[in-house]
Each structure stands twice: as C-alpha cells, then as structure tokens.
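Entry for the shared binder. Reason: the reviewer on the internal report wants the predicted structure included alongside the sequence.
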Amino acid sequence: MIKASLETTNFSFTAYGESESHAVNTLKRGLDQHTTDYGCDNGWWHGYSNDIVVEHIELNKAYRDHELIKVAA
C-alpha cells in the first residue's frame, strides 16, 4: 500500500492507493475537493506539488517517524 501526504500550514492531507500514482492522484482529487469545500483559490495547492510525500506502507506493521520498526525475532 502507498500513502501520499501533504502538510500545509492549516491542514494535513493523506490518501492511500495500491500504487504511487493511485495514491498521489487520489490526494490531488482530495485537494481539489478541499478547494471547493473551503472556497480556496483554484490551484492553490499546485505550488505544494513537490512537497507531496510518498511512503510505502505494510499493513499490520508498526512505524516510528515514518520508518518501519523492526521487531526482534
């Protein structure tokens, strides 16, 4: 699973997908909807496009500071 996220001054946005492109595109659609919901200037988030963080996530695993915690055997 892939997690795409964007931190702004006022909000934290997160989306998940089966691939990097799915997660990022889902996040962008969410940002477009946020623009409508909050009456923001169209395309306000485009300046933040390079700040989108993509992480590979394994289900049923624990993470610390965005890194997998290795469990001792």
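Summary line for the report: Helices lie at 20-38.
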